[in-house]
Structures are given as C-alpha cells and as structure tokens.
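Suppose you are handed a protein chain with no further information: no name, no annotation, nothing but its sequence. What can you learn? This example shows the usual starting point.
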Amino acid sequence: MIDIGTNSVLLTVAQLDPDGRMRVLVDEAVVTRLGEGLEGLGRLGASAICRTLEAVDEFVDKARALNVARVIAIGTSALRTASNAGAFVGRLPSGVDAYELLSETDEAKLGYIAAAMDEPQGVTAPLTVVDIGGGSVEVSQGLGRRFRSAESVPLGAIRLTESSLNGDPPGASQRIAALARADDLLLGITPPARPGKVVGIGGTLVSLLSVRLRLATYDARRLDGGRLTYEEISELAEFFCSRTEAERTQVVGLDPARAAIAPAGAIIAERVCQRLKVEELAVCTRGVRHGVLAEALAISPTASLGRDASDADNRMDS
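A reasonable first move is to predict its three-dimensional structure. Written in structure tokens, the prediction is:
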C-alpha cells in the first residue's frame, strides 16, 4: 500500500493473520513535497514529480521484495487538485497493480477507520477524527468504530506555508495572517454537537507530540494515544513561527524534512481545536493507508490491528 500524499509518500505492508487481525509488517515514509508550488501554480512542479516518482519506485521495489500479493497506490489532495495530475499518474511504475484517487469523503472515512481500530468493540460513544495533511484537513465523526460523516477543507500545511508563512522566520504578522486564513477556511467544518473523544492523525500532529515528548528517535508506542492540549499546540505554533527553518531543523522530535512546514501545521492544529471547541486530543500514528488496507483485506469495522515487533523503529508519518 503506497499513499501518495501532498507532503509525503508512505509505504505500509500488512498481512491478514489467521485470527482475522491485520498485522503491519512495514511502515515507512519519505517527505517529497509533491504539492510544492501547487497553491500558486495549480499544477505539480517537475522537481516535485521526479522526487515523488523516485520514492514510489523505491517503495514498489521494497514491497515486491517481500512477495506481496498486490501493490495498491492512492492519491489524495494534491492529485485531486493539480491540473497535470493525470500526467503524473501515467508515469507511475508498472509495479503498481492498482491506483485510486480518493475523494475527500473517502479519505476521511478511511482515516476514521484507521483511528477507530483502537476503540473497544461494541462501544458506541461519539468519536471525532481530525486528519491534518499537506493539502487538506478532514474532520470525520462516528460512533465507536462506525463511521457516520465527514467534512473536508482545502487547508493543509504546504498550502498555508506557501500562501501565508513564506518568511524565515514567519514572525508575528505572518502568523496573524495565517491564523485568519485558517479560521476562514475552517468555517467549512461544522463543529460536532458531541465531539466525544477526539483523535488526531497525520504527520503534523504526530510531529507536534514528538516535539512535546522530546523524542530523539521515532517511537510509535510512546506516541500512540499520547495527548496534546490546545495550550501546548498554541505554544508550539508560536515557537515555530519565531524560529528560522534552519533553527527548526535542530528541534528535538521534529523531522528536519518537516521544518519548512512546521509553523503552518501547528497553526492549523491550533485553529482546528478552536473550531471544534476541544481542549485536547489524542494522537494516533496510523493513517488513511491503514484504512485502505483494512478494506482491501476485507477486515470488518470491528476487527483490530496487530503490529510486528519491529514496528517500533518504523516511521508512521503523513
């Protein structure tokens, strides 16, 4: 399973165990910034296309080396909006058996399925899942493991960086402009009357928690279920906006490849919490690709996820 995102390309290899659980064997990510320049030009840049195709090709080789039955690729925000997306898809390596462009609703639903795998079977309490990506934000709602509805807005960490936070550092004035733009776009999200438990997925929220925990190396077991408060997110947004990109690359817990978009990601997270009127959220390291695999392996919404012991060293980012 290869997820071609606006900021990252992600590989997940999984198998169905005899007990009906999906076991993740490999989970890797590489930042390629496919959506770089898309906000202004409306099309994918040549360099971004080359970087991303190289990553996809490498991931296909890794998957084939594990004798997988099928290699499935999905496209999300950048490939939904770029005028030359078709040309990019036409250049995907032949080792990709199937490609699907996810709609906003499908992307949200699959993210919800992935995040809800931690919910106890039979529980029907309200659950809200927030997915902050490079090109869009999805907020989905359901009861326990059952997806109900979702909304999506074209607000992502790359988009906001290019439209409002191009200073180095962005500083106070650009932060104010970015906050206003985020708030305006987030009017497209209806705050749930009963948000219940709020879970965040995607590289932005995983990175914010990693910085808060000062994790020198990625550790999914420490990150999964960890909590971020609105106050912590707001403080990180201010911190990132007051540092240069070079200074942000030295921040413990932040992948240097995400330093350029860290201020935008934190601002979006801050304003999403404000819009939903929530004081904290839990972080989940899984993402849309895990939901796709659950459906591809014909796993029911009441199934659970197993992990290989090696997963502690694998990156789960988006």
